[in-house]
Amino acid sequence: MSRRRLSAAVAVLALAGAVPALVPATPASAAACSSYPSWVAGKSYAAGDIVRYTDGKAYIAEHANPGYDPTISTWYWEPYGCDSGSTPVGTFVVTEAQFNQMFPSRNGFYTYGGLTAALSAYPGFATTGSDTTKKREAAAFLANVSHETGGLVHIVEQNTANYPHYCDWSQPYGCPAGQAAYYGRGPIQLSWNFNYKAAGDALGIDLLGNPWLVQNDAAVAWKTGLWYWNTQSGPGSMTPHNAMVNGAGFGHTIRAINGSLECDGGNPAQVQSRVSTYQRFAQILGVDPGGNLYC
């Protein structure tokens, strides 16, 4: 089940310590877009800063930058929900009742509270764009999570024979928790020492030294899943978050997560399983799943 590897290009970044680290930000409160300070060209902004652009919309800095234009530099800025949509600000588009309907047999570890507590790490997740876009992204994330974990049943990788294989000793930091410590854990089955290092650096948590946090702390587990979803493109050409927000379609999320093994005819049954789950979750949320479902 554990196939969560960085692409070769991102792995090189991880080696160099250049994997971008997003600073956790506080979720939006029920404030109007106009309550945020106006964006100023050339002003230095830190990750997590929220501004109101000239179009009247709010944007959050995903990475520190010297006042780049929020509508041009999408690497540095992310649209930030305020009072422009019908979904209450700060409210996850999936209710606890809907979450339980999606995962009737889930492991008690994967709590709804753990998920909502993790959302502050990536405030653009399921809050960007129209209500339809928000719900599609939430459904897409949870559908892939369901596929990876057998319906949120498995916390750790089931094939223990794989455990010693996920240590890349060529990394300068090695495997301080032990060679067999970096097996798949969490909702997107984070694995390999370099992924634990990159995710931990981004989240401000020492996951390289203590990878067991991912299987012992529900909020940390969910954050690692959101880290991959929002920042990693894997074998794909875009992150799953960008695929859903920009309308590329659910198929691109599959490619980003496990495209090297499943897409292009690699395993059509697995792809169909993901698509069917996404369609079912979209129906629960009352939203059309959109097009481009397959990879």
From TrEMBL:
GO biological process: carbohydrate metabolic process; cell wall macromolecule catabolic process; chitin catabolic process; defense response to fungus
Gene3D superfamilies in the record: 1.10.530.10, Carbohydrate-binding module superfamily 5/12, Endochitinase, domain 2
Domain Chitin-binding type-3 positions: 36-80
Residues in the signal sequence: 1-30
GO MF term set: carbohydrate binding; chitinase activity
SS bond partners: C167-C175, C263-C295
CC per GO annotation: extracellular region
Keyword Signal: yes
Keywords of this entry: Disulfide bond, Plant defense, Signal
Pfam families given in the database record: Glyco_hydro_19
Keyword Ubl conjugation applies: no
Active site per UniProt: E148 (proton donor)
Protein name per its UniProtKB record: Chitinase
Source species: Streptomyces griseoviridis
